[in-house]
Amino acid sequence: KAGVTQTPRYLIKTRGQQVTLSCSPISGHRSVSWYQQTPGQGLQFLFEYFSETQRNKGNFPGRFSGRQFSNSRSEMNVSTLELGDSALYLCASSLPGTGNTGELFFGEGSRLTVL
Amino acid sequence: QQQVKQSPQSLIVQKGGISIINCAYENTAFDYFPWYQQFPGKGPALLIAIRPDVSEKKEGRFTISFNKSAKQFSLHIMDSQPGDSATYFCAANRMDTGRRALTFGSGTRLQVQP
User: Fold this and answer.
1) Nearest of B7, B55, B16, B62 to residue B35 by alpha carbon
2) Is the pLDDT reported for residue B55 higher than 70?
3) In this predicted structure, what is the pLDDT of residue B65?
4) Strand B62-67 and strand A53-57: pairing?
5) Nearest to B49 among A31, A101, A108 (CB)
6) Which residues in chain A land under pLDDT 70?
C-alpha cells in the first residue's frame, strides 16, 4: 500500500509570494491533517479535513488555508509568505471515526524556504 | 490547557542502555497518547500509543508508562541501539471527538553511542 505522498518535496519562495502544497493520502483514508514543523516551535497542528470539510483548525493566521477534494487529496495554501513561514509542512492521513486507534500516517513533508 | 511538555531536549545513551523520555500534559480530556519517531528527512512514524485505562504498554523494546493522576507518561527504550538514534515526540489527543488534532511535545533528540 502506498504511503502518504507530498509534493513538492522542496521549494524556495520569496516574501510576499504564495505557495500551494499537495498531499495524497493513503488509499481509503478520508481524514487529512496538516502540521508545520520548525526547530523553534516544533510540530504544530494546522488543520484537518474530512469529507471535503475542515473540521478542526489550529492557531494559525488566515494566510494559511486548505481544502480537500472528493478523492480525499488535499492542498494547503499559504499566501503573502513571511520569512517565519519557512518550515517543513507535513501531511498526515488517517482513518476517520472514534472506533479506531487514530494513528496518523505522515508523509515526508514539503520543505519550504522563504527568502 | 493544550500543552504537552517533554523532557529532556536531548539524550545520549550508550548502546545497550535504557533511554527514558518524559512527558506531562495539562488537559484532562486527552485520552490518547502516542509516541512518534522521526529520522532526518522523514516524517514522524507512530512508535507506540496508550490509552489512559492502562498504566503500561510494552511493544518489543519500547514501553510506555502512564500515570493518570500525575498527568504524566514516559517512553522507555530498553537495550538501546544505534539505530534508535532519532527524534522522539510524545503527543496527545482526544479520541472521543473523532478528530485528529495531535498536540505534540517539543521532541527529544536521542543519540545512542556504539
Assistant:
1) B62
2) yes
3) 95
4) unpaired
5) A101
6) 1, 96-102
